[in-house]
Amino acid sequence: MILAMEQCACVERELDKLLQKFVLYGQHTERSLDELLKYVTGLRDELSHTALQEAELSGTLSLVMSQCCKKVKDTVQKLASDHKDIHGSVSKVGKAIDRNFEAEISEVVADSAWESQERQQFLSAGIVEHLYRQGLLNVAEEMCQESGLSVDLSLKQPFVELNRILEALRNQDLRPALEWAVVNRQRLLTLNSTLEFKLHRLYFISLLSDGIRKQKEVLSYARHFQTFATQHQRDIQTLMGSLVYLRHGVENSPYRHLLDTSQWAEICDVFTRDACALLGLSVESPLSVSFSSGCIALPVLLNIKAVIEQRPCAGVWSHKEELPIEIELSKKCWYHSVFACPILRQQTSDSNPPMKLICGHVISKDALNKLISAGKLKCPYCPMEQNPADAKQIFF
After folding, report:
1. Residue 356: which residues within 8 A CB-CB, separation 6 or more?
2. Is there a contact between 101 and 122 (Cβ–Cβ < 8 Å)?
3. Which of 53, 89, 158, 363 is the most exposed place for a label (fewest CB within 10 A)?
4. What's the start-to-end Cα distance of the chain, in Å?
5. Rounded to an integer, what distance in angstroms lies between the CA atom of residue 366 and that of residue 368?
């Protein structure tokens, strides 16, 4: 991942140089053309007001026009020459991309990965769900028609409502979110959610920011906190304390932190998390998670491919759907408990569950069976001998 960031930074530096040249060239071009326009305009005005005789005017005009044409030609040639220099910078960006990134990455995917109709349908469904999450409903509908995917209306409707509420929150309108939270209050309580309180708190703060002219509304709205007095007593006390400074402005008081605008971004995140939890959905789109994971894993896979191609084992890549190599995706991509046997280096499964030995060490069932000798088992990590039948299956 660090290597990938360095490669991106290298390309970004070349791109910054190119953009800087574009800016400077644009400024230089504009300045040169303005000067040329002023010169030609001034020359025209001078010729139109010259009171020379016709014979003298003819000779003068020929000389002046010759000088004018030369000046225009020199300016254009200079701008064209400067523009050619930019072509070299554009070429450097392309070379930096070729040097730092793999041009062809399709070879790290098995040819049969998307051959089956079932897998194609899974991919299409993932894309459609991602589009629904982003609020791109029309694009999602078009995707369904072109891919032949049939999506139940019950799947679409929750995303329509969530995007409507999120759009209102981004515009600092709390009413749709408050209405939704009240309707789903009991379900939110089962999740120990603080969403409804945070919405009321933010609405109260928005009234505070309007100053003394909203005093009656602020005092009246404070009644909404009665339901949350037990769980959020300290927060409520802070909100009530800010009323003392309402006349002089909360922004000029020790409570000015209440007006922090970052709370609007936070409330969008809290709403998204809790709403997705009620719908049984992950907070992040499965497609975006898969894409991020692929970006992390791709450099490792490309290195593995290069090693395999240099050795007489190229068939390993094409004849198996998976490689027996673990790729670290960071804790951000951990969604369930996984135990890999430290002896066989294999992930445990229902048919090969993790087993806890008497000494406390854990290995897989297959490893346990292979370590049995003469009816006894010696722990591979400590010298303790034990009866294999005493090992117990554990569940993560």
Report:
1. 362, 391, 392, 393, 394
2. no
3. 53
4. 29
5. 5
β-strand partners of 393: 355
Two structure tokens written together for 368: 């346990």
Q: Which amino acid type is present at position 123?
A: L
Pairing state between β 372-373 and 392-393: unpaired
Q: What span, in angstroms and rounded, lies between the C-alpha atoms of 393 and 322?
A: 27
Angle at 384 between CA 381 and CA 388, to 5 degrees: 95
Please check the confidence at residue 358 and state whether its pLDDT lies above 80: yes
Contacts 24+ apart (CB under 8 A), 332-339: 333/289, 333/292, 333/293, 333/296, 335/282, 337/396, 338/396, 339/396
Identify any residues that bridge with 355 across adjacent strands, giving them in sequence order: 363, 393
Cβ atoms within 10 Å, residue 128:
23
Q: Which residues contact 133 (CB under 8 A, 6 or more apart)?
A: 159, 285
Distance CA 74, CA 36 (A): 11
Place of tokens 């609007």: 264
Digit-coded pLDDT (tens) for 111-165: 677 778 888 888 888 888 888 888 788 888 888 888 888 777 677 778 888 888 9
Residue type, 237: Q
Judged by DSSP in three states, 229 sits in coil
- Return the SS3 of 372: strand
β-strands 376-378, 372-373: how paired? Answer: antiparallel
Q: Model-level pTM?
A: 0.54
Q: Residue 52: which region, alpha, beta or left (left: phi > 0; alpha: psi -120 to 50)?
A: beta
Q: What are the strands of the beta sheet with 362-364, ordered from one edge?
A: 362-364, 354-356, 392-393
347, 373 Cβ separation under 8 angstroms? no
